[in-house]
Amino acid sequence: MKAYDMSHVTPVLHMVCGKVASGKSTLCAELARAPSVLVITMDHWTSKLYRDELKTIDDLVRLLPRLRAAMGPHLVELLRAGFSVVLDWPANTVKSRAWMRGVFEAAGASHKLHLLNVPDEICLQRLSARNTGGTHEYRVSQAEFEQLSRYFEPPTPAEGFDIVVHSWSLA
Q1: pLDDT of res. 138
Q2: Which of 23, 46, 79, 142 is deepest in the core (most CB within 10 A)?
Q3: pTM for the whole thing?
């Protein structure tokens, strides 16, 4: 087996910020096409680890710190090993972004925060199609979309992230 020298590669933690069905997972899949890039998907882990516990948004808020505590050191080690990581994990609050900052800073890695600027109407159309298709780990109702959207805090320049904006319009 051939060993790869990744010492010349500066690893990047890619983070995504966008409302439900804004295209975060689609963007993550595109970013992961580059060599030495891994995707870590929150919905995959929560659906496997918390299948019986995760029924409501309040459950997610309660369980997320456990997942962060388990995954944080693993993410740091992947970045230190020279892999770039696409975190398919919503960076939708100041608190979640602070945790992610701790990961890339602990690893000495670079970062990109991808902001998906998508109108609610498009998100709701995509959500309806996703729910009908039944291929996603979770069904999200319109009421849950609205509840989750109330938590959404777009990043500000004061947070100091390298932000890449991806915009869609109704036109």
Answers
A1: 64
A2: 79
A3: 0.85
